[in-house]
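Model it.
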Amino acid sequence: MKKAKFAVIVAGGKGLRMQTDISKQFIEIQGKPILMHTIEAFSHYDSSVQIIVVLPTTQIEFWAELCNKHGFRLPHQVVVGSESRFHSVKNGLEEIKIPALVAVHDGVRPLVSTETISRCFDKAEKYGAAIPVVDLVESIRQITINGSHSVDRSAYKLVQTPQVFDAEMLIKAYKQEFSPFFTDDASVVEAIGKEIHLVEGNCENIKITTTFDLVMAEKVFKTGN
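Modeled.
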C-alpha cells in the first residue's frame, strides 16, 4: 500500500531577534509572509502532500486574516501548538493517518529546495528516517573545562529540515517523555533506537531567525532561488 505524505510545519517563532512585534513566520519576503513561501515549497514538490501548520493559539486568527489578505488558497490544516517545539510537533502528529510518511519542517525555512524535500522523502520511504545535512565550511573548536581545541570538521554536519520519517515510527517516538536533549525530530527518533539516514540538503535552506538571515533570504528570492 502506497503511503500518504504529510508535512507538519511548525511555526511558533516570536521574532525577538528580529526586533519586531510581528512573529518571524509572518514577516513578508517578496510581498508574501515567510510561512506562505514555506507551504508553497512542499506544494511545488508534490501537490498531494497533506500540510499541517502548527501555530500558537494566539496567532491562528491573524494567520487566517493574512491568508484572506493575500488570497492564499493552498489547502492546509491548522493545529494549535503547545509550550515547546516537541509538544507542538506531537499535537501535529495527532492528525496523521497511518500508513504515511511525515516531514517535520521549520516554518521559517522557506528556501528548502524541491530536490532536498524529494531526497528526504525517497530515503525515508526506503529506510524509515531521513534528514538533510550540509557540510561545515568554517573551522570549529570544542570547548572543554581546560579551554578549547580544534576538531576535524569533516566529522560533523549541519542539520536542516525537513526531517522525514515513517509515521508509525515518529508517532511512537513522540510518546516518550520530553527531554532537553531532544533538539530536533531525529534526536527524538534516535532515542528509541532507530537509525537516522542522511541526505544532501541545500545551503540556501537557512532558518530565518535574524535580520541578516532575512536580508540573505530576500536576495535569494530575488535571484530566483
